Amino acid sequence: MIETETSIDPIWPGDTDWEALAARAISAALAVSAQGSLASAPFTVSVSVHFGTDDEVQALNRDYRHKDKPTNVLSFPMIDPDDFTALANTGADDFGGEVLLGDIMLAYQTCAREAEEKGIALGAHATHLALHGMLHLLGHDHIDEADAEIMEALEVKALANLGIDNPY
């Protein structure tokens, strides 16, 4: 079972159900990944999503990535990608019934600005960024071109499954 724990800074507009959006994005990313079987694991797979501010994300970006600027999304994986095979073959008791995959942080001002620049709804852009962050938690990256193509293809597929157009 996948569980999405969500926290939302009041700066995010109240006209969207951000908790439901996060849960859909996390589930969609998991469904298209090689780790999709975690959705039916005998333990709870937990992901934390925080809809925060540029200031929060900038501080984390500075402290953990040594880049003193805000960015749209940050991911903090708690599981090494090499451990996913072993994780898929374990029981609920091995982890006390829960595995924390990691944390995802979105920065409101940057997300809102990017959505406006792209001419898309903030909710569609936030969905894309949340599932992008989830793919990072699942071991994907976009450092080199081949990995970026794989990750983008997964994003496009997951977004299509949610009825959201290709952002690329």
Automatic annotation (TrEMBL):
Entry's localization field: Cytoplasm
GO CC terms in record: cytoplasm
GO MF entries: metalloendopeptidase activity; RNA endonuclease activity; zinc ion binding
Broad class of where this protein is predominantly found: cytoplasm
Cytoplasm keyword on record: yes
Residues involved in Zn(2+) binding: 132, 136, 142
The protein's name: Endoribonuclease YbeY
InterPro entries for the chain: MetalPrtase_cat_dom_sf_prd, YbeY, YbeY_CS
GO biological process entries: rRNA processing
Cofactor(s) listed: Zn(2+)
Keywords: Cytoplasm, Endonuclease, Hydrolase, Metal-binding, Nuclease, Ribosome biogenesis, rRNA processing, Zinc
